[in-house]
Structures are given as structure tokens and as C-alpha cells.
Amino acid sequence: MKQITLGSLESISLPALGVFDVLAKVDTGAWSGALHCTNIHERDGVLSFWPLGDKRLKIQTNEYNTTSVRSTNGQSAKRYLISTKVVIDGTEYDTVIGLSDRTTMTREMLLGRRFLIENNVVVDVSKTKDMDNEAEKFL
Fold first, then answer.
1. CATH H-level, domain 13-128: superfamily
2. What Å distances lie between residue 25 and 6, 99, 135, CA to CA?
3. How many CB atoms lie within 10 A of CB 23?
4. How far apart are the first and last CA of the chain?
5. How confident is the model at residue 74 (pLDDT cuts 50, 70, 90)?
6. What are the structural domain ranges in the chain?
7. What is the value of pTM for the model shown?
């Protein structure tokens, strides 16, 4: 498998979810990826959610799993996982992402180590340093 290099931030799309050109954080500290969603609920074996908090993008699926995730502050929470395709720089990849309300987070999307390992990705933070507005605080 060919190795690819991503920056710490990448513009990605999730076409099956109606999500296009979101600036995602490539997070080597997180195992799974995560997408900001609201109105996440499960009823009678059907999971419903609004990607990016946009009710026009409402998704319903019966193909999902659940897991328990621990945040950086040590809190455990139930997380819904879905399989989908992610497009980065015109290339399509299969991935699993968690759905969570990321309203208080800087980025609406994370790509975690699971994605990086499965797709033979290395991260070069200098590749996308011009997009990193967090760096401005320190440089």
C-alpha cells in the first residue's frame, strides 16, 4: 500500500452525508474519527442525526455500532459509529467515524489514528501550517 502524507488540517468531504469541504483536524492523539452532529438519537434500531448540526442534512440509518469513548478529561460516553467514505484531495477512503456534538470544539471533524493506520498515512504538520489559525497564537 502506497504511503500518503497529510497535514495536521485537511479539507475533506463525506459525500454520503452531504458534507463537503470541511476543514478536519488530523489527530494522532485520537483513536477514532469524529464528526460534529446534533439531534443524535436512536429509536427502534434506527439512528438519526444532523451532520454539522444542519437539519437539512438529516440522516437516518440502521447500519451503525456503538462504543464507549473516553474524552481527554476522563469522562466516558456512548458514541455512535458509522461507516462511510471520506474524500481527501480527490481520493476516496473507507472509514468509521463517531458522531458527537462538537459545538465547543475548534474543529467539526477529526481524523484519528484508526484512519491513519488503515490507509498508511503519515502526518507532516508543516504541510498545512498556513491553515492552522491556532498556531498564530504561539508563533
1. Acid Proteases (2.40.70.10)
2. 10, 15, 13
3. 16
4. 36
5. confident
6. 13-128
7. 0.86
